[in-house]
Fold each of these.
Amino acid sequence: MAKRPAKAQSKSVTIHDQKLQRGEGGELHQLAQDGAKVLTTSQGAPVADDQNTLRVGARGPALIDDFHFREKIFHFDHERIPERVVHARGYGAHGFFETYESLSAYTRADVFQRAGEKTPVFVRFSTVAGSKGSFDLARDVRGFAVKIYTKEGNWDLVGNNIPVFFIQDAIKFPDVVHSVKPEPDRAFPQAQSAHDTFWDFISLTPESMHMIMWIMSDRAIPRSFRFMEGFGVHTFRFVNAKDESTFVKFHWKPKLGLQSVAWNEAVKINGADPDYHRRDLWQSIQTGNFPEWELCVQLFDQDFADNYDFDVLDATKIIPEEILPVKPVGRLVLDRMPDNFFAETEQVAFMTQNVPPGIDFSNDPLLQGRNFSYLDTQLKRLGSPNFTHLPINAPKCPFHHFQQDGHMAMRNPVGRVNYQPNSFDPAPRESPVAGYRHFPSEEQGAKVRLRSESFADHYSQARQFFISQTPPEQRHIAAALTFELSKVETRVIRERMVSHLMNIDETLATTVAEKLGFQSMPTPADAAVPPRQDLEPSPALSIIKRGPNRFEGRKLGILVTDGVNAALLKSLGSAIAKEKAVFEVIAPKVGGVTASDGSWVEADHMIDGGPSVLFDAVALLTSEEAMDDLVREATARDFVADAFQHCKFIGYDKSALPLLEKAGIADSFDEGIVALPGEKDVALFVKELGKLRIWGREPSVKSGKASPPAK
Ligand code: HDE
């Protein structure tokens, strides 16, 4: 006998004798029998049965009378909107911007007038190349887009975590993006620059060399959004009440310092937790550890611009902080996750052209192109010119205009007047005083398609970036280039790239060539302008030189077994909390373990689910009786071996020595492998975690040679 579909336990309502509840907005909700709100259609009709379609008899055909089913499936079929062409994968949060001091001497932007004033913001971080469902730890630039809801309109500072860009003119944007995206005939690789078309384009585009140095550096694999810088990239203008202009570059500096992961770690994180960056932001905000950045500005006048070594309109160049210091002008705090990812993070529409009075553009050809592009993209993606009606995109200040109608119009102008000029009070009027005034820069010249000669130096700052890095960071750049180019099948592209590297740093070029197995070195690429050798290193460009020296905001992974020393676990936990860091417990079974004093310790992960790549440092709090089993677990051995090869601190109870041995590091102890308790006080161990990595370990790991025992 055919099985009959079960009749749902539908929450039926007696419409004429219904219970009602008043909602937050004063609206009345019908209540089901158990007190929950009654499910309705989008037209508001109460639904009696949401488990079965309407049909003729229990086993008969479906009926088109079923408006509830039709509406539900129709809506589901239209749930997706086009993902962003670039920056498709992203994650956002709400917060506020707090102004430190009045900048009225430079700008009349209302947001910068009063010390201590807080302005609401929404920030969206993103990767660039991958699609919406791609993993977080791609080697890629990160978007750092900030919408500041000022009292004089929304200001969108749509930046990246790298202060330069691949190209100088917006007309090349479709090309660079096409080249990095999956190749069109085969639709792979996803979220990767390591393939022929990207490096083909890059090797034919010398202006990208400075960006290539950044993107092959650890900046492209950040530990979390919380530990990365943001940059407005372009030169903008501040304009004050007297219509005087000052050039400005914007920088966001993370309060907790910069931090990145190792490439081998990134690859493993992508498998273990593809949402690693999302989860990090979610967890830190949900637990009240609100991430914070300082907004800093570099301010300069026309005279500086005229005399600086490079063109300030060229987005492939920076002004080193050592030449022009950065001035902190406010702070950004993210303290609230969106209520709904789609409504806010997916539908937020950033546009570089959103600027309030007092902030203006320069002639940077990339910025000019962006100002043109972002409106199109929002119309395509959100499907209606009324995307500003979505709460996430609407200004939070009063607004009055005569735009009307169109798809999804939610607020048309009220009243009789929808035109200007008009003679009806109180219809809105323009205001020459309060209104946005563009800086009246004088422009002249022939109508040409021409790249300025002042944009021609493509190598000098690439070199400056490279020589500003510490030896481990330089090794990572060489390794990244080698990895990426090893995935390029066309030999001539690899050679072309190395010929560019020769104009940047000869040792870098020869290292990469040697690791790729070149038989001979190519000749250096033709350079439009001879690369300068005299630019001083800029220490501000190195992540390691500006290390945080504290473990605050980081995460320790504690591997425990039955019999874990309860007192040690407790003191480690409180030392971590004192440092304003967090820890998670990893155990053979996720249920937990019994500690030495008989207490039960809950685990956050089983070993397979909590590999050491997810943590900034690890501790092995094991017991002798559990060791026999533990050393036979491949995942436990990987936990330790990975922590070691990723140069992390490893604290261990002496019962864990057999595990260290099985992981192949018993003869390679260094200052980062610390017996607990004993060798060092637990609190001191936690303090030392602030060094984050023992980079000195790296060369021996790479060459497979163990370093000599430290003691
Ligand atoms: Fe974008 N960029 N971009 N871009 N960009 C977009 O707008 C574009 C550039 C950046 O979290 C798109 O809403 C052009 C530089 C971020 O929603 C699109 C050019 C920088 C985001 C677009 C550039 C950026 C975008 C795609 C060359 C760093 C994500 C979806 C001139 C300063 C914003 C969208 C978010 C997004 C165009 C270059 C940053 C297609 C034409 C340089 C952070 O409009």
Note: Residues 84-87, 90, 124, 126, 143, 145, 158-160, 165, 170, 173, 233, 315, 348, 350, 366, 369-370, 373-374, 377 surround HDE (CB under 6 Å).
Amino acid sequence: MKFKFFDEINSTNTYLRRQLRIEEFEVIVAKNQTDGKGKRDSTWISSEGAALFSFAIEDRYELDEKITIFTGYIVYKVLKNYIENKDKLTFKWPNDIYYENKKICGILCEKVRDYIIIGIGININNTDFGIFREKAIALVEITGKNHSVQNIIEEIVETFQNELYSLNREWEDILQIINENSYLKDKKIIIQQNGKFSGKEYKFLRVDRRGKISLIAKGDSDEIKFSSLEFKVL
Ligand code: BTN
């Protein structure tokens, strides 16, 4: 596995995106990011002690719809080994890993030319979350001890590499694990449509084969699916 380390960089995703030649699985790691990117142009607060890294893969396995879910599954699988209370670790569609009601990891996959850049941020030994204090948690807070950020990054990239080639074959099993351990299971949510949240309540049903979220509205009999959605958990 090849690594490039930075004490500080704007964003490991942006760094890879700007490379003229992208090398598959070269891992860009930063101690700190000055312009960490989250989904929908949000900012990812980055501080030392977190795992902040990105790598790229060629987009050749019909990956588009699956890659974020697959990456979440890999991170979930690795982090679970560090945690005693495994049931509290869950996958939140489309790109987060939660511990109880707090986020421990966010994933940002971006398509660039013939590649997909996979950016992962995990709170490991960092505990300063600023305004996100109520919504975020770090591995150190769960286990009561510090962990090697480098070891966790290596484990994730290695597991990712090993399982990528069987992704399509194993997809149904991966989905089953994701759905059994979904943060949204049994939760009621409200959704944003045309820029507004309506009062209508929905129940999460599952993540489907194409990586879409499947919901059912209270009182309705038909399920509806979205490939991208803003929602709030009630
Ligand atoms: C999200 O939760 O919205 C996704 C957050 C992804 C953050 C990681 S940190 C490493 C990589 N570089 C970035 O700028 N973003 C991703």
Note: The mean pLDDT is 95.
